[in-house]
Fold this sequence. Notes:
Distance between the termini: 101 Å
Oligomer: single chain
Strand order of the largest sheet: 3-6-9-12-14-15
Helix content: 25-40%
Amino acid sequence: xxxxxxxxxxxxxxxxxxxxxxxxxxxxxxxxxxxxxxxxxxxxxxxxxxxxxxxxxxxxxxxxxxxxxxxxxxxxxxxxxxxxxxxxxxxxxxxxxxxxxxxxxxxxxxxxxxxxxxxxxxxxxxxxxxxxxxxxxxxxxxxxxxxxxxxxxxxxxxxxxxxxxxxxxxxxxxxxxxxxxxxxxxxxxxxxxxxxxxxxxxxxxxxxxxxxxxxxxxxxxxxxxxx
Length: 227
């Protein structure tokens, strides 16, 4: 892909997913745009076996943008990093088309594997701020990872994952994540269970109070009869 075509595609992607952009020229200010230019160069060098030169380019880009992408990672079309500071993408990561990452995301390994050590993200996946995906497994297409989640095992397609460790809280997502970009209003079944228990506990407490009042009235009636 030529530089001009890449710039056109990046403008389209950023305008689609970031409401803060006001003009196409702003794209050159985005750290994600600059780091992806460097990544494309470094990745070509990496594929040709020029590993040192590839790492040199990627490390320079990391210092300038706060985004570290290993040149060995495979990244598809329509990739978008919003803000981007603190994003880390490991060497054997595979990213499909139209994937979105927010700041502080790590696509890393556990330190135990050899060979394929990093995750695979299929098409249209969204990973929210601060989430960590660690290990050589797959996040299925159209899935959404909630902010701050730590995902340590495979996620089927069309799922929403939240928590530490990450757990599936919704299946068969109706919306493709990049169409709504909502990383906040995600279901939390644990919170819902706690709230249900609180409601049940409140109802039981009220019943106990009513029973105590009835017992007190019965005792008073019994005392009055004996007088």
